[in-house]
Amino acid sequence: xxxxxxxxxxxxxxxxxxxxxxxxxxxxxxxxxxxxxxxxxxxxxxxxxxxxxxxxxxxxxxxxxxxxxxxxxxxxxxxxxxxxxxxxxxxxxxxxxxxxx
Length: 101
Hints:
By secondary structure, this protein is α+β, with helices and mostly antiparallel strands. The chain is built from three helices and two strands.
């Protein structure tokens, strides 16, 4: 149910793409994290060849309310701003910045 809600917002996005994967953060991190869907969101140019904003980690998404909040946030347009999300959806695990710094 939660995944279907996220799939719908991506399907309605002209440049959206949804990829699913198991936990990619390593066994120690994955075993200790709270249950729920984790999202990585990044703005890009229409052909997806170049990013226009840094990656934003979101989650865990655990309820239909969380899906509605994330859906509204994604539909807001512009560069994804994690501070526009409630604290419970601002992931404490941030991907490494571009260039490996």
